[in-house]
Amino acid sequence: MEHDVLGTRVEVSGDAFQRNRDRNLELIAQIGEQLALARAGGGPDKLARHRSRDKLTIRERIALLIDPDSSFLELQPLIGWDTDFHVGGSTVQGIGVVAGVECLIGGADPTVKGGASNPYSVTKALRGLQIARENRLPVINLTESAGADLTTQKDIFVRGGRTFHDLTALSKAGIPTISLVFGSSTAGGAYVPGMSDYAVMIEERSKVFLGGPPLVKMATGEEASEEELGGAEMHAKLSGLADHLAVDEHDGIRITRQIVAGLGWQKLGPGPTLPADPPVHDPEELLGIASVDLREPFDSHEVLARVLDGSRFERFKPSYGTNLVTGWGSIHGFPVGILANNGVLFSQEAEKGAQFIQLANRRSVPLVFLQNITGFMVGRDYEQGGIIKDGAKLINAVTNSEVPHITLMTGASYGAGNYGMCGRAYDPRFLFSWPNHRIAVMGPQQLAGVLSIVARAAAENRGETWNDEQDAGIRRMVEDQIEKESNAFYATGQGWDDGIIDPRDTRDVLGLALSAAHSDEVRGATGFGVFRM
Fold first, then answer.
1. CA within 20 to 30 Å of 299's CA: 41, 322, 444, 464, which one?
2. Cβ atoms of 227 and 233 closer than 8 Å
3. Residue 181, Cα to own-chain centre: how many angstroms?
4. pTM of the full predicted structure?
5. Which residues pair with 208 in a beta bridge?
6. Which whole-number Å values give the CA distances from 304 to 208, 299, 509, in the listed order?
7. Which 3-state string (H, E, C) describes 40-78?
């Protein structure tokens, strides 16, 4: 195997570099605008009313909860983008360090409809619980919610019940769950503290009940106050639901940190074992490397040279199946195996990738997938040469691999290439995107062309004339639709990734994700499915 420090051939003064840089900066600015909307919550009036009650915002609560000067890796911050719901799903969720322990921290933003959950809130919460389970992360719920947004109950009720299932399953798995109740937690939301291992409530603030005074009056005729039905002091003294009673929000945060500190929580993974020196080449240059026009290819080696420790990369089979770059390196000291696209996947690339994944499992080394893929090669010669069975080998290996997978969308993600390179359906521990990312069954021009051919053939079968004007109209309509539904904003809005990241932050984001993955054992698979030969 060849082991070297990656060089570079990037021309930072070239037109393509400058064009990519300018456009990527524009996209990053647009992301910043949307993040600002998410952070603004319900707007100035709702925020002022919230503060008038002497309450902290959800982000202020998180900032006080996590260790000073530590990072908070926010997840799915723009879910719900371009929908009828508040961008961010009216919740904040991510991974932060509390008393030295990496935790999954999440909560509703009470300034947005009282923290009521909507379909995107549910999707985001379930994804967070999945991340906590797969990476063995203690969970801290910052609870203050009016329950479900009843206008969307048909999209919430059935799926939403899974949150309680997953909380209980975490407890069984020995992964601690903590609920810090800042305000109202009603109806189904009352089960969040009820199903958590630890429940912290705040005097005269926390209200936890299945039915509030109006519902109780309607259902039973009984008249009772909120404090009698679900006040913090009542739960601490009578029902036993509260394990700790705090005097105010700051005290509740202090108690929660104390609980985490007392867990005696230890990571099970080996942690970083290699030098974590920065890359030789400037990560700032990733803005000019990442093609915004995905018809313009870029070399994944240039990305690795700006992400890996010391830009060191030990290549695996560098002369075979060259459109798939494979090899070994490290990120912030964590050893990783890399699979990165440099073009369409042929049979050689698929076989090489499958073998490399097996080796990574033998070594028990996490895998990082860098997706920029138009798919598997098609055509008579390739079909007869076995591209289907060879592609199936790669997908088999990805499916049955048991080391942590982290996927980064650096460009296109089309067709079965998405599957072979560990797309969302293949359960990577984390999946992030660059702003230039596109995802679809195939590229807009290709899809429009296929539908044009099908429409023309159908018209001819009916004995109708198919003219060029009709054809151009269909192509334009399809291309416009796919462009709208395949860009990074749309994908992250649907919850197809865990967030769009600035390319310059790639190394740090991957390092945080790898650190979280090492909270659990890092152990490879001992067997795979049948490889069709």
1. 444
2. yes
3. 26
4. 0.94
5. 185
6. 50, 9, 14
7. CCCCHHHHHHHHHCCCCCHHHHHHHHCCCCCCEEECCCC
Helix axes 249-261, 58-65, angle to 10 degrees: 40
Q: What is the DSSP string of 306-361?
A: TTSGGGEEEESSTTSSTTEEEEEEEETTEEEEEEEESS-B-HHHHHHHHHHHHHHH
Burial of residue 36 (CB within 10 Å: 0-12, 13-18, 19+) is exposed
Inter-residue contact 109 to 42 (CB < 8 Å): yes
Tokens of 233: 């002091």
Residue 89: what residue type?
G
How far, rounded to the nearest angstrom, does the alpha carbon of residue 238 sit from its chain's CA centroid?
41
Rounded to whole angstroms, how far apart are CA atoms 435 and 450? 27
Burial of 376 (0-12, 13-18, 19+ CB in 10 A): buried
pLDDT (tens digit per residue) in 20-66: 999 999 999 999 999 999 999 999 999 999 999 999 999 999 999 99
Q: Of 374, 347, 379, 402, whose CA–CA distance to 517 is shortest?
A: 402
Q: What is the pLDDT of residues 324-349, one digit of tens each?
A: 999 999 999 999 999 999 999 999 99
Amino acid at 530: V
- Residue appearing with tokens 């037109």: 15
What are the beta bridge partners of residue 476?
A: none
